[in-house]
Amino acid sequence: MHASLKSLIARSVSRRNARWMTLGLCISSTLASLWTYAHSAPLPIAVLILNLTVLAAIGLQQWRSRKAIKFQPQELADRLLQVQENERHRLSRELHDDIGQLLTAAKLQSDWLKRRLPEELREPCAVLCNTLNETLAKVRDVSAILNPRQLASLGLEASLRAHLLKTLEHTSVHWSLECQQRLNGISEETAVAAFRITQEAVTNMLRHAQARNLLVRLQRQPEGLSLFVSDDGEGFSPAVNPGREGQRGMAGMAERVDQLGGTLSVISQPGKGTRIEALFPWAPRVLERANPHKVLE
């Protein structure tokens, strides 16, 4: 962090010095030209060189300014996703550490109070204790959704299964998670992207699709990790540009896949359900290990 701060200060100082040098050259060139004009003298070679230097300095400053503000869309998308994940982690930490601890303290106090209240006041206090228990459970669920800590310890398959169990527990949706191969060796970025895409697809299904059946399939392929999410809900008309047409969930899925150099396909029609297929390419270090057709010599 100290090195980054020093680098930032050095860049700021160099840019400030460059601006002052350019301003000084412009003033010097203007004064020299005015002196030559006032004395009706021929243009000295030194003044001509000075004018050319000023033009070169101004052109260099313009080029550096344009280069400084120029950015690539992929770099911007990567940065936005990174900021989004960091914000999710921060909110999850605050919910778990701050609000969760306060609710736990309130729950312990209410339990203590219930044991010492008269009989006629114990029932309302019990209702309060149950409300605190439900609120604490909700806070923990939201914290887990924002920051799936179990990805690192349990792995992608177990984390998705736990999420589906919790999310669809009180619904009438029949769901299935298929994973025929072990998913060890998957990078953290790929695991987070697959988890978030499934999470978004399930949330959209519950909000809009009114589906009765859900299928999630993870599969190792020679090209990469394949994710397939399908439901038999009401379906919709996928937008060509989801971000511009208000389909932020679909846009977020596409950004996550693009960030890892993968492909995303959303197939849906009104009344015919929705299929989401994503392919995350293997990193070079696991490409050979992921190929099931590799022949050992």
Q: Helical amount among residues, as a percent range? A: 55-70%
Which regions have little confidence, pLDDT < 50, spanning 5+ residues? Answer: 1-13, 286-290, 292-297
Order of helices and strands: HHHHHHEHEEHEEH
Number of strands: 5
Structural class: alpha+beta
Tell me, rounded to a whole number, the average pLDDT: 76
Strand content: 5-15%
Main pleated sheet: 5 strands, mixed
Q: Give the helix tally.
A: 9
**Computed CA radius of gyration, to the nearest angstrom:** 31 Å
Read across the widest sheet, the strand sequence of neighbours is: 1-2-3-5-4
Q: Termini, distance in Å?
A: 49 Å
Shape: elongated
At a glance:
This protein has 9 helices and 5 strands. With 297 residues, it is α+β, with helices and mostly antiparallel strands.
